[in-house]
């Protein structure tokens, strides 16, 4: 009986040893490497859709617009759209975000795991379509919409513009008011809100239940998210803004100054391309790129001039263009139209 117990003991030990061996050593098909990146489940990622969004792009409009069933993209800010688009890349471990706020956002997400072997090939066809849809939405805002978004951010922080409608009275006086006062003199022409094109931000927001005017308003009271959004809007409108959450003022927001490499390195390749071509657009340069045409033709300040030459560029323009190109080259080279809406290195527009 003793020899049987010893035999069973040796058999059990052999079985345990075999179970502890790698699968390949057991004569079976090798399993996936333990270090292979496994994306987190789609349902654990807020805003992520494993299916293609039910959206349609309308190319005939300038800029191109996108319509979706439901509220997939409507009502979202530039910041929210940037997060939504980059969430698709982040699910597969993309961690090369140069924008500090994007990098910090994803580092705080419990589902996020950096993947050193990230490649765009990891994305599904639905992922690629969704990236494209979101990017088109980011680029679809008109100048009027962008300025309205900008004003709303300030209004939510209590800003007062002191631009109520100006009314001319019969006694010769003028008063400012959001409502029509008595004894308005219409014989002298239009007055107040009756004038064509008249617009008052104070009066517009006074009609909103959430508006709380703050006579002591300062930009220091703006929350961090609002500062980031204002920077994105500023760049979309043709001014300069970094992605640090710091609001540039006066000359710092102007493209007439010399930009720094440190500032430029925080921008995406898409930002850099748009910024570089904004310098040309301000001088009237026509564009062959359909994407650039659509963007700048939507800006009221853009005046395309077929007779444009680079001789119109100032010395600061030339210096900034050179700096931007050097940073673009540092990050792999300028984006082309075919990369504009899909390249993960763009880090949001």
Automatic annotation (TrEMBL):
What protein name does the entry list? YARHG domain-containing protein
Short name of one Pfam family for this protein? YARHG
- Entry keywords, A to Z: Signal
Entry annotated with the keyword Signal? yes
Q: Where is the signal peptide?
A: 1-25
Looking at the record, the residues that make up the YARHG domain are: 55-139, 247-329
- Lineage of the source organism? Bacteria, Pseudomonadati, Myxococcota, Myxococcia, Myxococcales
Q: Indicate the segments annotated as coiled coil, or none if absent.
A: none
- Gene3D superfamilies given in the database record: 1.20.58.1690
């Amino acid at each position: 009986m003793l020899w049987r117990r010893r035999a069973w003991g040796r058999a059990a030990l052999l079985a345990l040893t075999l179970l502890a061996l790698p699968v390949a050593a057991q004569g079976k098909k090798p399993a996936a490497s333990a270090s292979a990146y496994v994306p987190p489940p789609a349902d654990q990622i807020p805003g992520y859709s494993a299916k293609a969004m039910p959206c349609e792009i309308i190319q005939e409009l300038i800029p191109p617009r996108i319509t979706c069933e439901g509220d997939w993209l409507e009502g979202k800010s530039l910041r929210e759209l940037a997060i939504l688009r980059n969430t698709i890349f982040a699910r597969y471990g993309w961690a090369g975000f140069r924008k500090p706020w994007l990098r910090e956002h994803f580092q705080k997400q419990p589902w996020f795991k950096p993947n050193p072997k990230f490649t765009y090939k990891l994305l599904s066809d639905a992922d690629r379509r969704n990236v494209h849809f979101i990017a088109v939405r980011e680029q679809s805002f008109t100048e009027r919409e962008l300025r309205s978004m900008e004003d709303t951010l300030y209004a939510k922080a209590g800003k007062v513009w002191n631009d109520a409608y100006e009314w001319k009275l019969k006694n010769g006086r003028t008063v400012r008011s959001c409502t029509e006062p008595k004894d308005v003199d219409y014989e002298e022409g239009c007055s107040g809100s009756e004038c064509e094109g008249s617009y008052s931000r104070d009066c517009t927001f006074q009609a909103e239940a959430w508006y709380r005017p703050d006579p002591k308003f300062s930009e220091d009271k703006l929350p961090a998210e609002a500062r980031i959004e204002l920077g994105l809007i500023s760049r979309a409108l043709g001014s300069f803004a970094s992605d640090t959450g710091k609001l540039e003022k006066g000359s710092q927001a102007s493209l007439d100054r010399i930009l720094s490499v440190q500032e430029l390195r925080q921008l995406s390749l898409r930002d850099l391309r748009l910024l570089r071509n904004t310098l040309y657009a301000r001088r009237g340069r026509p564009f062959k790129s359909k994407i650039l045409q659509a963007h700048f033709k939507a800006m009221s300040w853009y005046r395309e001039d077929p007779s444009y030459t680079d001789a119109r560029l100032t010395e600061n323009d030339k210096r900034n263009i050179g700096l931007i190109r050097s940073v673009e080259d540092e990050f792999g080279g300028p984006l082309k139209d075919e990369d504009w809406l899909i390249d993960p290195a763009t880090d949001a527009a």
